């Protein structure tokens, strides 16, 4: 209208065309990346030696094969197992979760053994990985997960939710939430239904949250191997049973092989850790030639490493023949030979040290589980528990309170309860035999405040055990106690026990036993104020506040140690025997035998938590409540070791020479200063 504000028709057409192009671009769904592309383009390593660097599949070649199977669409359920510290959690747990949350923008259910782990997993695994990525802006600014604390569900700003569900709690806790994707960690820690549950096991219940999605539902699970009946090994063997085959890089061989534990060679003849590291190699199962580390890396290059599923074969040219297994479950396993974070020498050192561990069985479990990804088979002791009646007849030649003539050391233990003190005294001789010379219970007075009453009872028991000529041998010679541990683990009486120990003049020691899953709280590690005996799992540590020295010990380890001595023949030097009960007497050892068999030993898997590494462990579970004399016998053995009980046989030059030559020698126990201990292995 003469003001120069008329719209230019050409400009208007250009803007309309630009708007149209924008609308078309916005309506077009974005191209979805594969999980491998997502991982390398988005994931930044939050910690460890590669902190701050982008995730690279080439660092661990097994990841390429694992991701290819996830991409293939052949499987609806994916179960992965491999060595610890090989990137298993990141590649099989964290990355699949983040892929579905941020690339596919869908809700994920995360299954855990218990909800106490949810905050740890969020804080240690998921949140650092997200904060290191470009998705950090999608983290919640308020509510759950924004400032720590209890975590059950994390709602991201793209609309996706990470929902934590556990194997603990009641069935209703898992019943009201649905999703297409389920990711499970520490599978073997949650593969059994609770005793009060009327429904299926927790994993089956969690997978029930996916039913509405039918064949589109996906499950991912990862865990180290525990036992053959554990969920991980069962899913692997009953699923696709997939393994990695490598083309041998040795000129003239070229066979496709899967090296296992028996193909790790060189450490067996080593005379030291340094030598074991230098000469250990992986050997080709086909040609028998040891590989260098460079050759092992060549064997894992694309084209040289492939996945072979159960029932399939591979030709010399590398062509895989045979149908896929008739299952929807991918069971994917890699082992120490595929773990490029460790050299063959690193694994060889662990094998060399394991062969010389005091707790040989535990070392074997850890090697199989943490490195070679093999299940542990329970030993004979777990299959054949002690018989109560036979155990009650396990008697020597001395009477109650009578000490064998050749005894060198007398130790004891007092188990403190609210209304009774249980106690046991044991004699050790130079021929590696332990004799239970007396045991019993001492009532705590009920007419006074309990803490004061416990202190009174402890003083009464002290007078009883330390009075003149309480323990004599058949020659009439008197034997005095050398050390008595007193249980201070009951929090109501800890300060009472500390006060009593201070009165004891060095004879009595405060102690605290730890069961499996509790060891990590004190870990038996050295420190400025600690003396540790690592192989035997106990330590003495100064309590600065009270000024007393507290003896920490692993109760499960020492109970196993006791049962080994109770299962061997009385003719063997390492046997433990009881004092003799005269025939026709009303007294018998049935009470003692029942206490000693009130717990049973079993191999279980526990998930890592806090300082506890977790894994395949030996655990003592309660069969009957009355187990106090088992605690007493185990504690008396700890006290014996503290006093340096030993045998000349273990110091023999022949044994030392055999070890130096690398000959297979069954481990022996040593005292805190490295001297051999009295009690020998069976």
Largest sheet: 9 strands, mixed
Count all strands and give the number: 26
> What is the beta-strand fraction?
15-25%
Mean pLDDT: 83
What percent of residues adopt helix (DSSP H or I)?
25-40%
- The Cα radius of gyration reads 31 Å
Counted by DSSP, the helix tally is 19
What is the fold-level CATH name, i.e. the topology of the largest domain? Nucleotidyltransferase, domain 5
Q: Please give the domain count.
A: 3
Structure write-up:
The protein is of the alpha/beta class. The chain folds into 3 domains: 85-130 and 137-223, P-loop containing nucleotide triphosphate hydrolases (Rossmann fold); 243-372, no CATH class; 388-590 and 624-660, 2-Layer Sandwich (Nucleotidyltransferase, domain 5), CATH 3.30.420. The protein has 19 helices and 26 strands. The strands form 6 sheets. A 9-stranded mixed β-sheet has the order 21-22-23-20-19-16-17-18-24, sandwiched between helices. Strands 3-4-2-5-6-1-15 form a 7-stranded mixed β-sheet, sandwiched between helices. A hairpin with a 3-residue loop joins strand 16 (407-416) and strand 17. Helix 16 (555-567) crosses helix 18 (628-642). The longest helix has 19 residues, at 9-27. The protein is elongated, with a radius of gyration of 31 Å.
């Amino acid at each position: 209208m003469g003001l120069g504000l008329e719209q230019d028709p050409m400009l208007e057409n250009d803007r309309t065309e630009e708007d149209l192009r924008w609308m078309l671009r916005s309506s077009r769904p974005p191209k979805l990346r594969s999980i491998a592309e997502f991982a390398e383009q988005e994931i930044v390593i939050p910690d460890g030696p590669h902190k701050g660097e982008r995730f690279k599949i080439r660092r661990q070649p097994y990841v390429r094969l694992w991701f290819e199977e996830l991409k293939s669409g052949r499987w609806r359920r994916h179960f992965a197992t491999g060595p610890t510290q090989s990137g298993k959690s990141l590649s099989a747990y964290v990355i699949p979760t983040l892929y579905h949350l941020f690339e596919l923008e869908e809700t994920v259910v995360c299954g855990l053994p218990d909800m106490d782990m949810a905050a740890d997993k969020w804080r240690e695994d998921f949140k650092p990985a997200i904060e290191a990525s470009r998705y950090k802006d999608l983290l919640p600014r308020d509510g759950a997960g924004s400032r720590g604390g209890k975590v059950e569900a994390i709602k991201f700003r793209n609309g996706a939710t990470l929902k934590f569900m556990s194997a603990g709690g009641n069935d209703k806790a898992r019943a009201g939430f649905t999703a297409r994707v389920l990711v499970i960690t520490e599978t073997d820690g949650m593969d059994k239904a609770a005793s009060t549950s009327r429904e299926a096991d927790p994993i089956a219940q969690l997978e029930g949250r996916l039913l509405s999605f039918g064949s589109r539902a996906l499950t991912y699970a990862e865990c180290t191997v525990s036992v053959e009946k554990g969920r991980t090994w069962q899913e692997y063997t009953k699923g696709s049973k997939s393994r990695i085959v490598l083309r041998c890089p040795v000129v003239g061989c070229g066979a496709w092989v899967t090296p296992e534990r028996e193909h790790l060679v060189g450490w067996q003849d080593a005379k030291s850790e340094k030598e074991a590291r230098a000469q250990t190699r992986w050997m080709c199962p086909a040609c028998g030639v040891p590989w260098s580390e460079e050759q092992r890396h060549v064997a894992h290059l694309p084209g040289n490493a492939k996945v072979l599923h159960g029932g399939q074969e591979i030709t010399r040219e590398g062509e895989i023949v045979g149908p896929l297994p008739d299952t929807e479950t991918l069971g994917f396993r890699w082992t120490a030979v595929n773990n490029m974070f460790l050299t063959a020498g690193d694994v060889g050192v662990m094998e060399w040290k394991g062969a010389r561990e005091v707790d040989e069985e535990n070392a074997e479990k850890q090697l199989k589980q943490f490195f070679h990804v093999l299940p542990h088979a329970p030993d004979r002791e777990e299959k054949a528990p002690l018989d109560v009646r036979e155990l009650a007849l396990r008697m020597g030649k001395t009477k109650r309170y009578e000490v064998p003539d050749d005894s060198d050391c007398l130790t004891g233990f007092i188990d403190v309860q609210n209304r009774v003190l249980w106690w046991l005294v044991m004699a050790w001789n130079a021929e590696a035999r332990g004799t239970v010379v007396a045991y019993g219970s001492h009532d705590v007075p009920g007419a006074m405040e309990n803490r004061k009453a416990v202190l009174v009872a402890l003083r009464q028991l002290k007078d009883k055990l330390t009075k003149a000529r309480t323990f004599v041998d058949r020659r009439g010679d008197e034997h005095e106690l050398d050390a008595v541990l007193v249980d201070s683990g009951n929090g109501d009486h800890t300060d009472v026990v500390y006060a009593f120990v201070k009165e004891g003049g060095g004879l009595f020691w405060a102690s605290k036993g730890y069961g499996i899953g509790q060891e990590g709280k004190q870990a038996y590690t050295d420190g400025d104020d600690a003396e540790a005996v690592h192989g035997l799992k106990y330590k003495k540590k100064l309590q600065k506040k009270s000024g007393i020295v507290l003896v920490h010990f692993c109760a499960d380890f020492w109970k196993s140690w006791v049962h080994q001595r109770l299962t061997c023949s009385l003719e063997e030097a390492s046997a433990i025997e009881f004092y003799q009960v005269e025939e026709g007497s009303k007294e018998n050892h049935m009470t003692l035998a029942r206490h000693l068999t009130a717990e049973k030993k079993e191999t279980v898997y526990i998930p890592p938590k806090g300082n506890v590494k977790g894994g395949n462990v030996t655990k003592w579970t309660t069969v009957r409540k009355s187990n106090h004399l088992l605690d007493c016998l185990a504690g008396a053995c700890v006290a014996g070791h503290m006093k340096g009980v030993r045998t000349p046989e273990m110091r023999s030059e022949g044994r030392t020479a055999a070890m130096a030559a690398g000959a297979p020698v069954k481990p022996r126990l040593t005292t805190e200063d490295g001297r051999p201990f009295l009690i020998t292995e069976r």
